[in-house]
Amino acid sequence: MPVKIRLQRHGKKGKPFFWIVAADSRAKRDGKFLEKIGTYAPTTNPATIDLNVDSAVKWLQNGAQPTDTARAILSYKGALLKNHLVGGVRKGALTEEQAEEKFNAWMQEKEGKVEAKKEGLSKEQEAAKAKALEAEREVNAKREADAAAAAQPVVEETAEDAEAAAENQVDDATAEEASAEDKEGQSTAS
To answer: Does 68 share its domain with 108?
Structure first.
């Protein structure tokens, strides 16, 4: 029976979630499988992959062929490296301790890279939030300035009206003085 290590789609439309399974190559994509090896969620950043490496290596040792995507996932999680190291142990090129040491060193390096990526992404998100907040503050400041500018001409108009009214009062006062002088001049003349 030809065995494939492949992805089996689950999840809903637009939000894929995959099981990594060992299945007969003649079975349907989402059909019967021999063993569930892990899960793969591509919607997160970085993608979330849970893989039973020992089970994957067992299937690879028994001749299971991974699909292209499954091969990339197995390589990313170190299953192909472990399979290679187990082959070296079987041939006598390495001891089991050396193979485990190499595999653990590789895993620590890989975890460091993944953590660095996660930190970089979180810093980018924080920077994007800070930039959005600053842009929002600028927009709010502009709105406040526009509101103050809209309210200020009303005050200026009232100030201009007050000046005009004061000039009118001065004009009225001079007119009253002139009329009072005319009346005095007329009364003295009579």
So the answer is: no
3-state SS track over 54-119: HHHHHHHHCCCEECHHHHHHHHHHCHHHHHHHHHHHHHCCCCHHHHHHHHHHHHHHHHHHHHHHHH
Q: Which two tokens stand for residue 128?
A: 């994007």
What pTM does this model have? 0.65
- Residue 6 and residue 67: Cα distance in Å, rounded? 6
**Residues 60 and 83 reside in one and the same domain:** yes
Averaged over successive runs of 10 residues, the pLDDT of the chain (190 residues) comes to: 91 94 91 93 90 93 93 92 90 87 91 89 91 91 86 60 65 65 62
* Same domain? 12 vs 65: yes
Domain that holds residue 124: 95-167
- 89 and 24 both lie in a single domain: yes
Q: Give the contacts of 140 (CB within 8 A, at least 6 positions apart).
A: none
